[in-house]
Design goal:
Elements (H helix, E strand, L loop, with lengths): L4 E2 L5 E4 H7 L5 H9 L3 E3 L2 E3 L5 E2 L6 E3 L2 E2 L7 E6 L28 E3 L7 E7 L2 H8 L7 E8 L4 H9 L2 E2 L2 E2 L4 E8 L4 E8 L6 H8 L3 E10 L2 E2 L8 E3 L6 H12 L1 H7 L3 H4 L59
Parallel strand pairs: 10-16
Antiparallel strand pairs: 1-2, 2-5, 3-4, 3-6, 6-7, 8-10, 8-18, 9-10, 11-15, 11-16, 12-13, 14-15, 16-17
Length: 329
Amino acid sequence: MSDATKDAGGLPAERLHKYLASTGAGSRRECEEYVRQGRVSVNGKQVTKMGVKVVPGKDVVLFDGERVQSQRKVYYLLNKPTGYICTNSDELGRPRAMDLVPDQRQRIYTVGRLDAESEGVILLTNDGTIANIICHPRYRVEKLYEIVVRGKMTRLHGSQLEAGVWLAEGKASPARVQRAKYDPRRDESRLEMTLFEGRNREIRRVFAKVGLKVRKLIRTRIGPLKLGSLPPGQVEVLGPADLRFVQEAERLYEMNKEMWDAELPSPERRRGPRPRGPAHPKAGGRSDDRRADSRGGRPSTGGGRGPTTGGQTGDDPTPPERRGRRYYP
């Protein structure tokens, strides 16, 4: 998990955003954004572009005007209660998940996020490399959720969720839905959902897209790290043995990189459906070959496999071994 090289003097150098992550400033992706925002300087010079390398202990790196240094890596597993937010700072003064970690001496942050209304297992650390592997969907570290939604969960709902629905920023990665049970007395369905990624309020938004409202959301597992009997608000300290699955996830990704990357939603598909407008007057009442499918799917380009169930394109990113499988009544 190292991309370190050596500078002209033979000292080990590493990419700036990776070094920042090692100091506890944030995850690698967060540190990339800090660099682009101009919040980082190296030896007195502001850096706004990626690719800069630094030598730890030799180069002076400032983040928001304060010098940063590598820290001892720490890992905490927290059962986050409702009402706590997963952020390092909040102008409204709301309670933060990291406030539940006692005796903090390192600058830590949450790996992934759970919104204030959600609860369950979350990892807090100052290790940006670990955070990147756990959060990025390419490494396929599973996150398991127990969810209660209002109304009845149908096969159509499950098909749409498993294919991946469109959000404002692009198409959500496919999910795995299982053990859905409907309680007619409460008019609610209980189910489990497995995801590889976790965008901001993603689960609530994808359920809203298929017409279901989430009433309760608990994350019960990150990889092999289970919530178990850990009480709400309590923290468990993790050691190297607890995090071996991260190195295994990276190894498996390197072995299957080409296939796994092809199964992720591509940048082309993440742009979302084109809005339908009035037909061009020269097109004879229709927009050339981009005709809307009669079932309400995206416009067809005249080729390919055509729309699938739920209005998604035939370019189905669901792994082949999961297509056609159903985990609900």
